[in-house]
From TrEMBL:
Its EC number is 2.7.7.65. It comes from the Bacteria. Keywords: Coiled coil, Membrane, Transmembrane, Transmembrane helix. The lineage of its organism: Bacteria, Pseudomonadati, Pseudomonadota, Gammaproteobacteria, Alteromonadales. The chain crosses the membrane at residues 372-394. Residues 333-360 form a coiled coil. Residues 433-566 form the GGDEF domain. It holds the Pfam family GGDEF. NCBIfam families: GGDEF (TIGR00254). This is diguanylate cyclase.
């Protein structure tokens, strides 16, 4: 596109057209959009209030691409001060939702979305509703709510019917992403191809680049690395045009692994070194994890096993942090929804109470024969309030249970399991009884993910969990530490009894038939055990000794049960 400038201002002086061009360039050519922003800045005194609102809204998009969230929010606040139109106001609210999501402020994001949805629910024009649902898709993506994401994307496509090509592009992309995250890789690949063709045809190159990356991820998960590699490289070039740094880093982390598997060790090391030095922002956790996994493989290839172990430990720590962050995000979102629902119920209750008082005053002026009607009404309102309170109580309990459980396996998460075990330990020590701890770690689990994909890895974790749950007692506390590592707390159990139980678990897991996963492979587990000493004051020393025994079990060849011995330390 050739632009004509004159004396530092636009030759056309049609600022509405100029702003429309900037809006389009933000989706196609960010450097050129920045040039137009600079030219428009000289003309700000000539812009109307409506045009200024649009200008500052578009400027916030530039900051969003650069992850400068505070500046983006300031631009939106400035846009609001110029009394934007209803359509632009919706757009501003939705960009604010995006900023809150990126800042992990789920309460504010959900509240802002609620305000916007309630504001437009009576509109006849579906375009504003479609835009709000598209932003809701962003929430579901960030919270790993892929079933809800897929359903909402389908709803957007039904409502939009191709009227707004940008929203249509986003909906097609989100539908493909949800399908990918649900491990339906071939179907996802077809959906990404469809979104790429549609979005590139309708001049949405950034979404087209995202679709290319989605196809590359599908091929990567299917193990077709030779096809995935050039598509990742194409996506990298596309993202670099927009300086979309989070996506640039993500693509490089995939390419680093592919280069290693294709024995291009120099390129693998180049990207892995670069990514491992990224700052500690949460957005970089999964990228740094992949980078450290590649560095571990490179060190192992070179025979530097100490450094390989160090890199693998860093990757494991980042994996745990990423898992905890996902759990925190889901809990925060659930609480945000719950708090908004509670506020709505409270408002309804206050309105009901006010209506009740007015009706009571009116009824007092009527004949005594109407007292039965009042009593019936009062009883009905009380029953309604009781049902509202009961619903709130049930929802609170449900959210509490969700916060205590591991999202994949359904057993206790690390923190909940340790809290329960600490309480049991206090009781055991008071009664001078035994207490044992068992740490269990699946052998070579990473190779299952690498060879057969993460869906098979998830199947393995859930299958192992079910096998162990069928063996242990109801009083035992079973939780997932993170990744492929579990811990079993055994109140009133000595180390020999724990050893017998551990051997039973090891044997059952070894005999798991994996054909129902769609692949044939073997599963084994290493187990370390420790028991309560009279000097122990908390779980920490028991867990430390059990971890040492587990490490020794791995060192001796895996698929073993070992009780901690001082000689291991």
């Amino acid at each position: 596109m050739q632009l004509v400038f004159a004396s530092g201002v636009f030759a056309s002086q049609n600022f509405d057209e100029d702003l429309a061009k900037v809006d389009k360039l933000l989706q196609t050519d960010l450097p050129q959009a920045e040039i137009m922003f600079a030219e428009l800045e000289h003309s700000l005194p000539q812009l109307t209030s409506s045009q200024l609102a649009t200008y500052h809204t578009l400027y916030s998009i530039k900051y969003l691409y650069l992850s400068e969230l505070d500046k983006a929010n300031s631009s939106l606040e400035l846009a609001l001060s110029f009394d934007p139109s209803e359509e632009l106001l919706t757009r501003i609210y939705l960009y604010k939702v995006t900023i809150y999501l990126m800042q992990r402020n789920y309460q504010a994001a959900f509240s802002m979305l609620e305000i916007n949805l309630s504001r437009i629910k009576n509109y006849q024009d579906t375009s504003l509703k479609v835009a709000s649902y598209v932003r809701l898709l962003n929430i579901f993506l960030d919270l790993n709510a892929y079933d809800e994401m897929r359903d909402t994307a389908s709803l957007v496509l039904n409502l939009n019917q191709g009227k707004n090509t940008k929203d249509e592009c986003y909906a097609k992309l989100y539908l493909a992403v949800a399908t990918l995250r649900l491990a339906q890789y071939q179907q996802a690949n077809n959906l990404f191809k469809e979104s790429q063709i549609y979005c590139e045809t309708n001049e949405q190159p950034l979404i087209g680049t995202m679709s290319i990356k989605g196809q590359a991820e599908s091929y990567f998960e299917l193990g077709q690395l030779a096809i995935a590699k050039p598509m990742f490289e194409t996506a990298l070039t596309g993202y670099q045009k927009f300086r979309f740094q989070p996506e640039i880093n993500d693509v490089k982390s995939y390419l680093s692994k592919i280069y290693f598997y294709q024995q291009d060790y120099a390129k693998a090391a180049e990207y892995a070194d670069e990514l491992s030095k990224l700052n500690e922002d949460k957005v970089n956790q999964h990228v740094k994890k992949r980078a450290n996994e590649v560095l571990a493989m490179l060190a192992n290839k070179d025979g530097d096993y100490a450094k390989a172990y160090q890199y693998q430990q860093i990757a494991h720590t980042l994996d745990l942090q990423d898992l905890n962050d996902k759990t925190n995000k889901q809990n925060a979102y659930q609480m945000a929804r719950f708090n908004n629902a509670e506020a709505n119920r409270e408002n309804k209750s206050l309105q009901q109470e006010r209506m009740l008082m007015m009706q009571q005053k009116d009824l007092m002026l009527k004949e005594k024969s109407s007292s039965m009607m009042f009593s019936t009404l009062l009883f009905g309102v009380c029953v309604g309030l009781l049902l509202l309170l009961l619903t709130a109580w049930l929802q609170r309990n449900q959210f509490r249970r969700q916060a205590q459980r591991d999202g994949l396996t359904g057993i206790y998460n690390r923190q909940t399991g340790q809290d329960l075990a600490e309480d049991e330990l206090v009781q055991v020590q008071a009664n001078h009884n035994q207490f044992s701890v068992m740490i269990l770690d699946l052998d070579l689990f990473k190779s299952i993910n690498d060879r057969f994909g993460h869906a098979t890895g998830d199947w393995t974790l859930k299958k192992v969990t079910h096998v162990i749950q069928d063996i242990i007692r109801p009083t035992d506390i079973f939780c997932r530490m993170g990744g492929e590592e579990f811990v079993l707390y055994l109140p009133n159990t000595d180390e020999q009894t724990a050893s017998v139980l551990a051997e039973s678990i090891r044997s059952e897991i070894e005999s798991i038939n994996t054909k129902y996963s769609g692949h044939n492979f073997s599963i084994s587990i290493s187990i370390g055990i420790s028991s309560l000493d009279e000097d122990d004051l908390s779980l920490d020393p028991l867990l430390s000794r059990a971890d040492i025994a587990l490490y020794e079990s791995k060192r001796q060849g895996r698929n073993k049960v070992l009780i901690y011995q001082p000689a291991f330390a």
